[in-house]
Amino acid sequence: MSQEAGVWEHHAVIELKDDASFQVLCNASTTVLVNGQATRESVLRNGDQLAVGSLEIACWLSPARQKSLAIAECLTWSMVAGVVLTEWILLLRALPH
């Protein structure tokens, strides 16, 4: 909860929409300034400035970075191949000659 002047406990909420964008929704009796324009509902874009009472918020949305899983995937497939090879060798040894 913010202690800023003019900000209520349930003033507004920022939600993630189905299309992976963000939306600010205000309480029925409140408004938020998005880039200086009063609104009760707005889709947020990169660089938008929100003002809620005396609180100012800058929105910077960036792409999520995912670390490479190539090494883990290589190790996993190597272990699977090792298990299959070991089982094949054990099966060949168990068969009568």
* Uncertain residue segments: none
Number of strands: 7
What spatial order of strands do you see in the largest sheet?
Answer: 4-3-6-7
Radius of gyration: 28 Å
Order of helices and strands: EEEEEEEH
Q: Identify the overall geometry.
A: rod-shaped
Estimate percent helicity: 25-40%
Q: Mean of the pLDDT scores?
A: 84
Structural class: alpha+beta
Distance between the termini: 78 Å
Range of strand content? 25-35%
How many helical elements? 1
The major pleated sheet works out as: 4 strands, antiparallel
What is the strand and helix layout of this fold?
Layout: E1 12-16, E2 22-26, E3 32-34, E4 37-39, E5 41-44, E6 49-52, E7 55-58, H1 70-94
Antiparallel strand pairs: 1-2, 2-5, 3-4, 3-6, 6-7
Verbal overview:
With 97 residues, this protein is an alpha+beta fold. The chain has a domain at 12-58. It contains 1 helix and 7 strands. It has one helix at residues 70-94, and strands at residues 12-16, 22-26, 32-34, 37-39, 41-44, 49-52, 55-58. It has a 4-stranded antiparallel β-sheet with strand order 4-3-6-7, with no helix packed on it. It has a 3-stranded antiparallel β-sheet with strand order 1-2-5, with no helix packed on it. It is rod-shaped and about 85 Å long.
Descriptive labels:
7 strands; 26% helix; rod-shaped; alpha+beta; 1 helix; three-stranded antiparallel β-sheet; four-stranded antiparallel β-sheet; 97 residues
Please sum up the structure shown:
The chain has one helix at 70-94; strands at 12-16, 22-26, 32-34, 37-39, 41-44, 49-52, 55-58. With 97 residues, it is of the alpha+beta class. It has a domain at 12-58.
